[in-house]
Amino acid sequence: MRSYRTLFRTPEYTPFLLSFAAFAAAQTIGGLALGTLVLRATGSPLLSAVSMFGPQLAQLAGATFLLSGADRLPPRAILSGIALAFAAGTTVLALPGLPVRAVFAVLLLQGLVASLGGGVRGGLLNDILTKDGYVLGRSVYNMLWGLTQMAGFATGGALLALLPPPACLLLAAALYLLAALVTRLGLTARPPRSAGRPSISATWRTNALLWSSRPRRLTYLGLWVPNGLVVGSDSLYVSYAPGAAGTLYACGALGMFVGDMAVGRLVPPSVRRRIATPLRLLLAVPYLCFVLRPAVALSAVAVTVASVGFAAGLVLQERLMSLTPDDLAGHALGLHATGMAALQGVGAALAGTLAQLTSPATAMTLMAAGSVTSTVSLAVLGRQEERRSAAPGPHPGGLSEPAAAD
Predict the structure, then answer these.
(1) What burial class does residue 54 get, using C-beta atoms within 10 Å of its C-beta: 0-12 exposed, 13-18 middle, 19+ buried?
(2) DSSP state at residue 192
């Protein structure tokens, strides 16, 4: 599948995207409104930030224990239920005079409910698309996410200039209801991909199974570590250039859009499997110039070029799917989303600590150097695994999957 026309003719792909766009728009508009509401109520930038990103942290905890449900529950029902739960929770958040403790209790519940969302959506996308259409379809999904974030934050900011935060939260709740409706009417009722009941023990057993394969381990590390270290650099835009942080983030979004479009649409599969390492190096190398503390214009160019390298995620996700049984696709993608969120959080914390001890520019450079080092190390390990798998005779662990070659 090499054309957008063929992609959008795929049954259910368009309603899948529309439901996701409505959900993402609700998240951005609602998150900005809630952060503003908490800041006005408490005067605390910390509580405001946690109110916006707290559900993601709770989602990380929930996915650690509940991820087996991504393949053991019917996807349409789960996605509709998640959207309805967010609509109800966001409506509660809009209630006047709601105590801050109650706000964070609702956010915790929302995060736990959403812990299945990434795995269920990823597995459903894998079901909807053919194998040769996954990268193109995922690239459009990623581009839509970036565009929706930019439009959602811009729209949310404009709405907050005209309306009070509770009114914006009610608008977000309506968008969640729209996402649930589109999911219910536009998607087919599929059975679970895997038999059995979701449980904590099943989650841990499947996590262990996915991690037991060395090619999959290398693929997961390639998805998480270089990306997380560079996101640490990204987190320092505000302290590096307070007056131009928005410009740098916009340039990063532009680079991601270009990279996803190019890799998903223009790069043939025979080439795609060989460019994971070059793309991961591209993701980090331009940040090395920050050691010279470049002006905003040059910084914007470096950020734009570097962000094209985020398209490595498409290549590595395609590899992950080739290494994973279809009945574990949702769990495997959910584990990827969980690990990536964790490593990005670690990267941001590490970068902030380095910036406190040195300077934002030095910290960004060090994080980029760490990303380059991790990419080179993983490439060497991948080559060793490729040679080991190609050697005659039995291999330790009895792996039958292809090696994680770069």
Answers:
(1) buried
(2) P
What is the per-residue DSSP string for 49-68? HHHHHHHHHHHHHHHHHHTT
Determine the pLDDT at residue 402.
Answer: 34
Between 32 and 172, the more confident residue is 172
Q: Are 333 and 304 in contact (CB under 8 A)?
A: no
Structure token digits, residue 153: 């934050």
CB-based contacts of 28, cutoff 8 Å, min separation 6: 148, 149, 152, 153, 156
3-state SS assignment for residue 202: helix
Burial class (CB in 10 A: 0-12, 13-18, 19+), 165: buried
Q: How many CA atoms lie within 13 A of 380 on its CB side?
A: 6
Q: Which two tokens stand for residue 264?
A: 């998903």
Q: How far is it, in rounded angstroms, from Cα 138 to Cα 129?
A: 9
Tally Cβ neighbours within 10 Å of residue 15. Answer: 17
Q: What percent of the chain has pLDDT over 90?
A: 39
Provide mean pLDDT across the span 230-253.
80
89-142 pLDDT, tens digit per residue, is 999 999 988 998 999 899 888 888 887 888 888 889 888 988 778 888 888 888
191 DSSP assignment: P
Task: Give the C-alpha separation, 140 to 118, whole Å.
Answer: 16
Q: Which tens digit of pLDDT belongs to each residue from 322-350?
A: 899 888 888 888 888 878 877 887 888 78
Is there a contact between 67 and 331 (Cβ–Cβ < 8 Å)? yes
Listing DSSP states for 131-166 in one string gives GGGHHHHHHHHHHHHHHHHHHHHHHHHHHHHHS-HH
Any idea which residue has 């608008």 for tokens? 171
The secondary structure of 334-381 as a DSSP string is HHHHHHHHHHHHHHHHHHHHHHHHS-HHHHHHHHHHHHHHHHHHHHHH
